[in-house]
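User: These chains co-purify. Model them together.
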Amino acid sequence: GENVEQHPSTLSVQEGDSAVIKCTYSDSASNYFPWYKQELGKRPQLIIDIRSNVGEKKDQRIAVTLNKTAKHFSLHITETQPEDSAVYFCAALLGTALIFGKGTTLSVSS
Amino acid sequence: DAGVIQSPRHEVTEMGQEVTLRCKPISGHNSLFWYRQTMMRGLELLIYFNNNVPIDDSGMPEDRFSAKMPNASFSTLKIQPSEPRDSAVYFCASSLGPHTEAFFGQGTRLTVV
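Assistant: Joint model of the two components:
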């Protein structure tokens, strides 16, 4: 069936380093790709999204890139801080359903 | 708006009992999603509704699971009979429609013993 693959499952970085999380999707018709952050014990919340008519989008320290030909998209966090520690989920709109990757646990140590 | 509201926040039940989870989406949102979150499987889409109509329930694990949306402001997810492997956090989310942000409720942590 339609799915979204996400890598890595865990990522540990030092404060100030960059973090990159990558996702691939199966449906070439997908055109909406949001990223969610989930802190421990809390609900997932949208941090950034991108639509298929653009290749890159930035919001302060966060950026997302999209390669529709290769069917993959990535989240880039620069100058990481301890408060960036959380689980990050990519998602893709497959048909009209929002399908999530399995998540990446990011740990930022100071 | 108070956001997506789910109840109960926590539910502990014995195997074999019926469990009903409730969700009130954000007013005006046309799409409603039910997800199940576990460590092993991540966020799994169980079912979603568009304008109160179930669009895709292929993610519902088995016949023990059922979901309804009788009106635009209320949805339920029912498990009957419940089993220990159903233990998870169940999230409800709503959005204005495709290509828009999905807002999650706080989730219901279900434990079946």
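Chain B has a mean pLDDT of 95.
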